[in-house]
Automatic annotation (TrEMBL):
This is Plastocyanin-like domain-containing protein. Belongs to the multicopper oxidase family. It comes from the Eukaryota. InterPro entries: Cu-oxidase_C (IPR011706), Cu-oxidase_fam (IPR045087), Cu_oxidase_CS (IPR033138), Cu_oxidase_Cu_BS (IPR002355), Cupredoxin (IPR008972). One of its GO terms (molecular function) is oxidoreductase activity. Pfam families: Cu-oxidase_2. It is found in: Secreted. It comes from Prunus dulcis.
């Protein structure tokens, strides 16, 4: 077995190859394995092709319950500009965060509406608010402001189905027809390809304030992070508990 990093950005990385040998019982030591021929470190076509082959089991024991009807369509663009990361989305999806939600939120959030230039980004607390048990489709589009780079995105509180991915700009008229709604992989973290897009679907059945961020820690510190506010359900079993009485103030 062999593994090494993949990179699609002009940055320096630790380009070492990790290898391991799994020896079955009864196989003599004279049988020597042959080292795998790994693709080039920047072979984007191979990496995307490999990821596209991933599937869920979609069996009776492990069903792939992909939402087929979508209640909420969201489109986020991400990009590296002026040494800041921005997240943008249509403003009508961004209600002001409530004081109740702030009681449950102990992280600093950064949001910026889509600018005409990659300058003047601002901090804020505008978040996407989702109705309880609604179905959501989120398309994350990587943009090329200063340089392109893939970003591993993590959504807390949920698994989601990766129903589509591609290179270039997402086409809302053509690309959804190519979605895999039968057995897409179920993840909580997904790599948004450099200059490409990823489409994911999930059901918002876990109330609370849920962090979504790039797993490159430096990018998270720069502001590549946001959150979803998922509203409470109709009963206490599907609602966020109130803060404990001994919760220290910020």
């Amino acid at each position: 077995m062999a593994a090494r990093p993949f990179t699609d950005a002009p940055v320096s990385i630790d380009n070492k190859t990790a290898t391991g040998i799994l020896q079955y019982k009864g196989i003599p030591n004279t049988v020597q394995p042959v080292l795998l021929q790994l693709p080039a470190i920047n072979n984007t076509v191979f990496a995307l092709s490999f990821n596209a082959k991933l599937r869920s089991l979609n069996t009776a024991q492990f069903p792939a319950s992909v939402p087929l009807k979508v209640d909420r369509h969201l489109f986020y663009t991400i990009g590296l500009g002026c040494f800041k990361i921005i997240i943008s989305t249509p403003r009508e999806y961004l209600p002001q965060i409530s004081q109740t939600a702030l009681q449950h939120l102990s992280i600093t959030l950064v949001h910026q509406s889509l600018p005409t230039l990659a300058v003047g980004t601002k901090q804020g607390t505008r978040l996407s608010k989702l109705a309880f048990n609604s179905t959501v489709e989120l398309v994350v589009q990587d943009t090329n402001l200063l340089t392109v780079e893939s970003h591993p995105f993590d959504l807390h509180g949920y698994n989601f189905f990766v129903v589509g991915t591609g290179v270039g700009n997402f086409d809302p008229k053509k690309d959804p027809a190519k979605y895999n709604l039968v057995d897409p992989p179920e993840r909580n973290t997904i790599g948004v390809p450099a200059g490409g897009w990823v489409a994911m679907r999930f059901r918002a059945d876990n109330p609370g304030v849920w962090f979504m961020h790039c797993h490159l820690e430096l990018h998270t510190c720069w502001g590549l992070k946001t959150a979803f506010i998922v509203e409470n359900g109709k009963d206490s079993d599907h609602s966020v508990l109130p803060p404990p009485t001994d919760l220290p103030p910020c």
